From TrEMBL:
This is threonine ammonia-lyase. Its EC number is 4.3.1.19. Its cofactor is pyridoxal 5'-phosphate. It is an enzyme of class 4 (lyase). One of its GO terms (biological process) is L-serine catabolic process. Residues 19-306 form the Tryptophan synthase beta chain-like PALP domain.
Length: 325
C-alpha cells in the first residue's frame, strides 16, 4: 500500500472544494488562562463540519476520486460513528450505495445521522474490531468496495487538508495535538507538517484504556491491546500498518490520557470555548494540560475533531464537573 504524498493532499483539496468549506481556527482568552504557562492555544474547529467531524474530509475525497464503475459497486465499511457519517455523507453526495457496520448499541446520534443520510446500517459485534471483521466478510459477498478505517491513502490525504488550512494560517506553530483511533488524523498531520512546517511537533493522543496505536508506535510494530475507552473516536484495539508507517516518519511524541481527564477537558471546552466537543475531540486538551510545563510559552493547536456527543455523554461530563468550576 503506497503512502499518500503532499501532492495527493493538494488533489484531495481540489476534489473537496465544491463540497466542503474551510473550518475556523480560534483562540479563547479563557482557555489560554486555564491552560496557563504562557501557552497560546488555537482550536481547529472540525466539529463545525457538515457531519460534525473531521473525517468527512476523507470520505468526500475518497468517493470523489472513485471511478464510475467503483461508485456503482458501492462502498462498505465499519465504524464507531464518525467514519460512518463521513462515508454516508459522501455516498449521498455522489449517489453511491453505502453499507456501514457499527458495533451494537452505537451512539444514537451517530446511528440516526447515518440512517438519515440514506446509508444501510448493520449493527454487529461488541466493539470496533468485531464490527471490522464482520465488514471484511460482508464486503466481498456483496461485491462492494471495503473501505478500511485507516489503511486507506485517499482517506488520509482527504483528512490532511485540515492541516494544510492550519499551517497556512499558522506557519510558525510550535506543536499540534491530534487524537488517535486508527491514526489517519495524526498520520495526516505528520505528512503535512513534514512538507510545510517541519519544525512543528506533532503530538498524538490516545486513551490509556485503548492504547493500541500508542503501543504500536512505541514498539515499532502493529500490536493489539484491550479497548475499553468510552471515547468512541479513540476506541480501536489494534495498530494500522499505513498510519503507523507515517507516524514513525514524523511523530514527535505520543501521550496517553485517562478517560476522567478527557471528561474534564470536555467540560473546559464547554466552559472556556463555548464548544461542545465529543470525548475523543477533548483528548488533545487533556494531553496539553498534562504536558503544559514542557510547552510553556509556545503556540499550540488542538484539533477539535468532532462534536457528536450524545445526551448520555454530555450528562456524564457535566455531572463530573465541579459545581461552580
Ligand atoms: C475518528 C476520530 C478520531 C480519531 O481519528 P483516527 O483518524 O481514527 O485516528 C478522533 N476524534 C474523533 C471525533 C473521531 O471521530
Amino acid at each position: 500500500m503506497h503512502s499518500p504524498t503532499i501532492s495527493d493532499v493538494l488533489r484531495a483539496r481540489r476534489l473537496q472544494s465544491a463540497h466542503l468549506s474551510p473550518t475556523p481556527l480560534l483562540s479563547y482568552p479563557a482557555l489560554d488562562a486555564t491552560v496557563g504557562a504562557g501557552i497560546r492555544v488555537l482550536v481547529k474547529h472540525e466539529n463545525l463540519q457538515p457531519t460534525g467531524a473531521l473525517k468527512v474530509r476523507g470520505g468526500v475525497a475518497l468517493l470523489a476520486s472513485m471511478t464510475p464503475d467503483e461508485r456503482a459497486r458501492g462502498v462498505l465499511s465499519y465504524s464507531t460513528g464518525n467514519h460512518a457519517q463521513s462515508l454516508a455523507h459522501a455516498a449521498a453526495l455522489f449517489g453511491v450505495p453505502c453499507t456501514l457496520v457499527m458495533p451494537e448499541h452505537p451512539n444514537p446520534l451517530k446511528a440516526e445521522a447515518v440512517r438519515r443520510l440514506g446509508a444501510e446500517l448493520v449493527e454487529h459485534g461488541a466493539d470496533f474490531d468485531e464490527a471490522r471483521r464482520h465488514a471484511e466478510q460482508l464486503a466481498p459477498r456483496r461485491g462492494m468496495r471495503l473501505v478500511s478505517a485507516a489503511n486507506e491513502p485517499a482517506l488520509i490525504a482527504g483528512v490532511a487538508t485540515a492541516f494544510l488550512e492550519l499551517f497556512e494560517l499558522e506557519p510558525d506553530l510550535d506543536a499540534v495535538l491530534v487524537p488517535v483511533g486508527g491514526g489517519s488524523g495524526a498520520a495526516a498531520a505528520c505528512l503535512v507538517a513534514a512538507a510545510v512546517s517541519p519544525r512543528c511537533r506533532v503530538i498524538a493522543v490516545q486513551s490509556s484504556r485503548s492504547p493500541a496505536a500508542h503501543d504500536s508506535w512505541r514498539s515499532g510494530r502493529c500490536v493489539e491491546r484491550p479497548n475499553s475507552t468510552t471515547a468512541e473516536g479513540l476506541a480501536t484495539g489494534s495498530g494500522f500498518e499505513l498510519t503507523q508507517r507515517l507516524l514513525r516518519e514524523h511523530l514527535a511524541d505520543f501521550r496517553l490520557v485517562d478517560d476522567d481527564a478527557i471528561r474534564q477537558a470536555q467540560w473546559l471546552l464547554m466552559r472556556d470555548a463555548r464548544t461542545v466537543a465529543e470525548a475523543a475531540a477533548a483528548a488533545p486538551l487533556a494531553a496539553l494540560l498534562a504536558a503544559r510545563d514542557g510547552l510553556a510559552g509556545q503556540r499550540v493547536a488542538i484539533m477539535c475533531t468532532g462534536g457528536n456527543a450524545g445526551e448520555a455523554e454530555l450528562r456524564a461530563c457535566l455531572s463530573a464537573a465541579p459545581v461552580g468550576g
